[in-house]
Hints:
This protein has 112 residues and is mostly helical. The chain has helices spanning 2-31, 40-62, 68-109. The model has no long low-confidence stretch (mean pLDDT 90).
Amino acid sequence: MNDRKLELMFVGVWVLLLFSLFDFTHCLLTYDVITYHNSLSYRIITAVVPIFFVVGVIVKIIKRERSFGDILFSMYAPLFLWAFTMALALPLSLVFTAICKGIIVLGMLSGG
């Protein structure tokens, strides 16, 4: 059973990494900058933080025997993991953007 959870965690990390990578690369190719207004990853992660806090308060009211710190840790751990994958995706997106822009410039120079 633990192997299945570990495999699902790896798949989740890869999905989040690829989502952030494509989102950041799209922002860099389209707008030349990654900001809150044009990055879907940043908008989602900032919207989820208060939602998780409210859900944590509701879970604490329902389950009084668990501490509030344990509840918040178990809720925010995936969010911290996503923030870590976003930090990995930033330099990779810079490399992919440079490659894509180089291909675009080479295509323009060749007359195509």
